[in-house]
Amino acid sequence: MKKTIFLLFAIISFSHSYSQQTTDLDALLRNLGKQDQEVRLNLNRVVQQGIADSILHYAEVMATTDQTNQLQVKQILKNGVPTNLSAEAYKAIFLIVDHADVKYQKRYFTPLNKLSKQGLIKPYDIATLRDRILMHSNKKQIFGTQTIAKPIVITDNSSSPQLTSYVWAVKNPAKLEARRAEVGLSSIQEQIKAHASHGYQLIYDPSLSKRDIRALTKSTNK
To answer: Which pTM does this prediction carry?
Structure first.
């Protein structure tokens, strides 16, 4: 009887400990996701204002934040993707992988794609990650989610800089809208409107090649 009670107590204790670890991990990931988004919002704000020193500052903060977050997520995922996390925690994992370099993205694409098939990560997020990997590999994207911005020109007259981006070259553009709809993405025109609401002119021209877009967004600074 005593042995049975001891085993029952051990099971209850383990279950409580595992539950607490999951809760702590979930909170950690949600915080990492919050950091990922906050630094990008701050950077976008100062870019629109054309504040050169602040742009440099937040660009450095973003690079440091991304590196720290990627190291933590790498440690978390070393034994596979944790289960029983919140939607916000899984979203944070996606954001941190999505904002990493292409080697890191490729490493975790398959496990994140499996999460998408389980309904834990949105199909349009996986589509975004797929497009980013393709663009970083100098290949045409599939869903038209990736853009490249022209270099920002900051003048001395304190006026906001012109912010222009181009949609990276798309494979089989005639079927683009259908592919976007399949994964829950809005139309390209809605994407253009969304960029405009954040102060960016987004240009989608399917006739432009990868080389054309590279040339249009190449810095002229020497």
So the answer is: 0.84
